[in-house]
């Protein structure tokens, strides 16, 4: 392998194979490269046959693409994972307490830890949620915490996905594909399973049902429809959980309950796992032109007649400007220092930060406050002068719409290509389920990998791929 400039999770910094990868390294050395190339092609064909795709939104209509998959797993030891889980759980608890607080007494603002305008002027803050107590006190039923690694023991939280985190279907299909193609690897390595995620999710959601529920709670998944970029995942999760996949047109309010159309008439829903954005959830309370939501569902929700997962208004917790306050948020609600660090962040709404970032665009990663999927961002060190000049115009016109961060030296994990094993940058999105019964973190999560040499952008929409993520049972 060529000289490693970054911490590599397989070879460290010295090209001596790290403990979690030793079994895999021995296996690779005993394999014929031609067989591995054939297996890589087989994996791509499996994804094509299964229909594991996503939509990329461009200038015209959405383009459907096959999500790239790499056959070399990303491996973490049990000790590494346990340390991460402590930090993830602390952060998720703090996020839930923060959401309760800002929609009730706003103690964190009274204490001067967050400026009032950061909440009041935030488009993700929903005044309609003020004073609402969600069933079980849970706002964030499913959370995805994006992590990056820069060294042997150094992890950073890149962002919090508290609204509608996606990608769990890829995590599950990646594992299924690896089990199908390389059963011998799982016999040699004690890899913790992820296949129980759908069962755990249904159980976790059911535990959040409203008090008026009688018998086994009825759970359903609300999708915007087949043209949504994550529709594969919506259908996949509904199927795996054994629940109905519904669209807004399938639902109506009957006798103060939210009910879905079935072959036996309308049936009340107790828990709705919604994959529809807040603005489109209820045309009577939000955007009146929405054809995706359910008229009146917010009235039923406020009356305690249904659980909506995740709760409306949770998007403010994954706002990138609020992210910069997360160390204060964790400390305020838990009384503890954060176990997982934030990436240092400039809030460009502030004059000093704006001035600094404007002069250093070529060195920084600049993101839209409400952006996602890698859209609308600038990676300064890899951008052309033309890219920077065009971005500068948008940035200077609306500086409060952006935050900026230093370019971290992200860890790499090898991918398998024509050159053999080649390092590429990765991040990790663990998936967290939250209910009154506790917090459950699936062992592993979704590893996204930048397939282009030197690229730090791992999003599928920007050319990234995925890997199976192993947590060893040690």
Rounded mean pLDDT score:
92
Calculate Rg over CA atoms: 22 Å
How many helices does DSSP assign?
A: 15
Sheet with the most strands: spatial strand order: 3-23-22-19-18
Helix fraction, binned, reads: 25-40%
The proportion of residues in beta strands is 15-25%
- How many extended strands? 23
Oligomer description = single chain
The span between the termini is: 28 Å
Helix/sheet category: alpha+beta
The major sheet is characterized as:
5 strands, mixed
Give your account of this protein's structure.
This protein is of the alpha+beta class and 474 residues long. It is built from 15 helices and 23 strands. The strands form six sheets. It has a five-stranded mixed sheet with strand order 3-23-22-19-18. A five-stranded mixed sheet has the order 13-5-4-20-21. A four-stranded parallel sheet has the order 7-6-11-12. Helix 2 packs across helix 6 and helix 3 packs across helix 13 (326-334). Residues 56-61 have low confidence and may be disordered.
How is this fold's topology laid out?
Layout (H helix, E strand, L loop, with lengths): L21 H8 L3 H18 L2 E4 L6 E4 L2 E8 L1 H25 L4 H4 L5 H5 L21 E10 L2 E8 L6 H14 L1 H6 L8 H10 L12 E4 L8 H11 L2 E3 L4 E4 L2 E6 L2 E4 L2 E4 L3 H4 L15 H6 L4 E3 L10 H4 L2 H9 L6 E2 L3 E2 L3 H9 L4 E5 L9 E2 L5 H13 L4 E5 L5 E6 L2 E10 L1 E5 L2 E4 L4 E4 L15 E7 L3
Parallel strand pairs: 3-23, 5-13, 6-7, 6-11, 11-12
Antiparallel strand pairs: 1-2, 4-5, 4-20, 8-9, 9-10, 14-17, 15-16, 15-17, 18-19, 19-22, 20-21, 22-23
Helix pairs in contact: 2-6, 3-13
């Amino acid at each position: 392998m060529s000289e490693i400039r970054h911490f590599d999770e397989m070879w460290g910094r010295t090209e001596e194979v790290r403990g979690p990868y030793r079994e895999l390294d021995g296996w690779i050395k005993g394999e014929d490269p031609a067989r591995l190339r054939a297996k890589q092609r087989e994996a791509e064909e499996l994804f094509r046959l299964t229909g594991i795709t996503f939509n990329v939104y461009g200038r015209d209509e959405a383009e459907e693409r096959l999500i790239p998959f790499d056959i070399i797993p990303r491996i973490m030891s049990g000790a590494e994972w346990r340390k991460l889980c402590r930090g993830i759980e602390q952060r998720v608890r703090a996020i839930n307490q923060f959401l309760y607080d800002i929609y009730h007494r706003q103690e964190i603002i009274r204490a001067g830890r967050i400026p009032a305008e950061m909440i009041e002027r935030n488009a993700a803050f929903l005044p309609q949620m003020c004073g609402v107590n969600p069933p079980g006190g849970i706002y964030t039923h499913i959370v995805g915490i994006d992590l990056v690694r820069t060294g042997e023991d150094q992890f950073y939280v890149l962002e919090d996905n508290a609204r509608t985190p996606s990608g769990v279907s890829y995590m599950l299909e990646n594992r299924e594909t690896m089990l199908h193609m390389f059963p011998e690897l799982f016999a040699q390595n004690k890899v913790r399973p992820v296949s129980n995620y759908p069962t755990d999710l249904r159980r976790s959601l059911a535990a959040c049902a409203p008090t008026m529920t009688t018998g086994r709670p009825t759970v359903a998944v609300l999708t915007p429809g087949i043209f949504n970029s994550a529709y594969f995942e919506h259908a996949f999760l509904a199927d795996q959980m054994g629940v109905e996949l519904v669209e807004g047109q399938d639902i109506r309010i009957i006798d103060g309950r939210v009910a879905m159309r079935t072959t036996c008439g309308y049936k009340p829903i107790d828990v709705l796992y919604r994959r529809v954005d807040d603005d489109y959830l209820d045309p009577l309370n939000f955007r009146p032109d929405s054809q995706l939501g359910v008229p009146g569902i917010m009235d039923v929700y406020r009356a305690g007649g249904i659980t909506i997962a995740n709760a409306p208004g949770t998007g403010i917790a994954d706002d990138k400007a609020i992210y910069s306050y997360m160390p204060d948020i964790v400390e305020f609600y838990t009384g503890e220092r954060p176990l997982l660090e934030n990436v240092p962040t400039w809030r460009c709404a502030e004059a000093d930060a704006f001035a600094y970032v404007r002069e250093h665009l070529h060195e920084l990663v600049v993101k839209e406050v409400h952006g996602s999927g890698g859209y609308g961002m600038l990676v300064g060190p890899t951008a052309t002068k033309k890219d920077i000049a065009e971005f500068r115009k948008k940035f200077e016109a609306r500086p409060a719409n952006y935050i900026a961060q230093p370019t971290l030296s992200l860890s790499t994990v090898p991918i398998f290509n024509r050159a053999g094993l080649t390092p590429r940058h990765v991040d990790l999105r663990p998936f967290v389920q939250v209910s009154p019964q506790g917090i459950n973190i699936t062992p592993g999560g979704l590893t996204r990998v930048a397939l282009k040499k030197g690229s730090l952008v791992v999003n599928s929409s920007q050319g990234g791929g995925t890997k199976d993520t192993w947590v060893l049972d040690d």
